[in-house]
Amino acid sequence: MKKKVKISMDITINAVITTNPGPHGGDHGVTLDVTLNDESKPPFLDIDDQDETNWIERHPDTQAVRWRLSGNAGRGTFNAIDDPKAPGFEWVGTPPPKEVFSHIRRSRNGREILVDDLNDGETTVGLWYYRLNAMIEGMPVQSHKEAFPPSGVTTNASIKNK
Fold first, then answer.
1. Tens digit of pLDDT for each residue in 73-82?
2. How far out from the chain centre does Cα 59 lie?
3. Of 43, 69, 100, 161, which one has the fewest beta carbons inside 10 Å?
4. CA 66 to CA 103: how far, in whole Å?
5. At CA 95, angle to CA 91 and CA 97, rounded to 5?
6. Model-level pTM greater than 0.85?
């Protein structure tokens, strides 16, 4: 004889959810491709800003900002974060308040720099400038907030919390 038996279960699933970050901090983060502008003298790291300041939308959760060496810079690595002469990531000028950006780190393969950005209110809004430093085929290169003569190219490596 067959009997119907009702079974109930509580199941907990631990998962890592990966989102595809939008261009300006949507889906809890942004990825910025960094290439080498080797047409300028000296060559420099060119951060894909799509002709505007990279900005992060306000969100109650921390958002990851990721700089990724790609294209002709993909064969290089960012300098260590604690490099005393040219750290992989450094603030230029007035740094942001300490509670805004945290956990600055370099990926294991050295091709990415990640920073956690907490843009959750009026006190976390602002515009800040930074510099990236890397080695590409033995050549030290960096992003700048300066003009490069003779081309006059200016790279404003900046991030803005809106």
1. 999 999 999 9
2. 17
3. 43
4. 12
5. 135
6. no
